[in-house]
Amino acid sequence: MTPQELPPPISPRQMDMLRAVAAMAWADGKLEPDEIRLMLDEFAMLFAKTEIERSALKTRLKDYLGQNIPLEEVVPNIKSVEDRKMTLRLGYQVIQASRRNPDEPMINLDEAAAYQRLVRILDLPPDVVADIEASIVPHEGAYPNGIIKSLAARLHKLLGNAN
Question: Measuring CA to CA, which residue among 45, 137, 50, 44 is closest to residue 96?
């Protein structure tokens, strides 16, 4: 088997969550190279144990991030309520972090539309959605180590508790 024919080195559950978060990052039609590099570094640290595995994983995951799979295809695969909550939380944080300059709104129209689709597809109770949104307070300096590190830490915690 060539490397492209091998199954992904992370579980289907982890891949679905990664793809859903990536879809939110793609909502405005752009995934910046620095953003990709940072996400790959952080997720490789979570999902791989050795430097060789991390390097291979980054290469493989980059291909998945570049696919820009629609939310409607990937989100229905996320079955558990906890995974759905985490996906909503991460998706909400990603779109809030995508502002490229201070003159832009925190969430642009494309991202807002994608977020509403995510909420609809996840089909979580409105009070759960409201609680998740209220728990995320966007402001400068909220993530001293960066939004991606914050997201990676939360995802790692979820995956560590649920495996």
Answer: 137
CATH fold group of domain 10-162: TerB-like (1.10.3680)
Residue 140 has what pLDDT? 47
Query: With a cut of 50, which residues of the chain have pLDDT below it?
Result: 1-3, 139-140, 162-163
Question: Is the whole model's pTM more than 0.90, yes or no?
Answer: no
User: Whole-angstrom Cα distance, residue 50 to residue 70?
Assistant: 31
Do residues 109 and 42 lie in contact, with contact meaning Cβ atoms separated by under 8 Å? no
Q: pLDDT tens-digit profile of 69-103?
A: 899 999 999 999 999 998 898 888 777 766 566 67
- Are 118 and 75 contacting, i.e. CB atoms less than 8 angstroms apart? yes
Percentage helix, strand, coil for the chain under 3-state DSSP, each rounded to 5 = 70, 0, 30
Q: Which residues contact 94 (CB under 8 A, 6 or more apart)?
A: 21, 24, 25, 147, 151
Most distant CA atoms of the chain, gap in Å = 49
* Segments making up each domain of the chain, as ranges: 10-162
